Amino acid sequence: MKIFHNFNDVGSIRNAVVTTGSFDGVHIGHKMILQRLRKLAMEIDGETVLITFHPHPRKVLYPESVGRDLFLINSQREKIELLRKAGLDNLIIVEFTVEFSKITSLEFVTNILLNKLHSRIIVIGFNHHFGHNREGDYEALKRLGSVNGFGVEEIPEQDIQNESVSSTKIRKALQDGNIQKANAYLDHQYIIMGEARKSSQALEDIGFPCYSLRIEEDCKLVPPNGVYAVTVVGEDCFSRAMCFIRKNEASPLDTLVEVHLLESYGSLEGAVVTILFHKRIREERVITTTEDLRKQLILDRNQVDELIF
Questions:
Q1: Would you tell me which of 41, 144, 259, 293 could form a disulfide with 46, CB atoms 3.0–4.6 Å apart?
Q2: Pick from 252, 278, 274: which is nearest to 77 by CA?
Q3: What is the mean predicted confidence (pLDDT) over 261-279?
Q4: Which domain holds residue 241?
């Protein structure tokens, strides 16, 4: 996957099949769009393109209201990795600014989708809007396409058990600690990626050595405090694990995320790893003595060990 941070850096893209959006979570609805992009690109010997935005538009346009408390399912690193796995050919990460938000839908289509990318087909999600004041939509694109010679498709809303999927609903499930519901919406495990560091000497002293991962972005959504059944994946590691989360509401970057591996591996110190979340085992509890903590962690580990994942 090629990654660009400026439209002027984008070289020639063969028969571009393009979509746009934040794609936070790269959930099942996003994947349907990407699958359709790939199919259309294969039919015309083309390449797939996603134009996405950073920071999230709400963070820029509404910093004191809905943007202030908006937490995102994925960090930038995580989203890039998920899009890579989804088979995307070209990712264009646009720096979203107030100035960029003032571009009209006509200017966006004409100056960027046509003049810069020479788009052959544009694919959008259900009820997608774009351009200044969200004035652009599927019908507007169809009219422009008929005049300028590009195709337009709209992907219908995706349902799971008759419930529509959205990044907002996934965020709510994660904030509630409902990992399994979030994973069903995502069509993959919720993840946290980061560099592993040795952690918690106190836990190591009672037989539970841990690695910690630092949250990379302060707007990264982290599930509630507690213990989780996870898998830790790295270049030389694939292990079931317990994950301990203790959030720092005042300083999100200082949130504590620790993992205790159930399988033995060499040192992961300094390695970039991915935590795949499967289930919340329990909420955080106040445990006053070291012996009580050791007994509780043994119970937690046994519970994780009995799960099939």
A1: 41
A2: 274
A3: 94
A4: 189-306
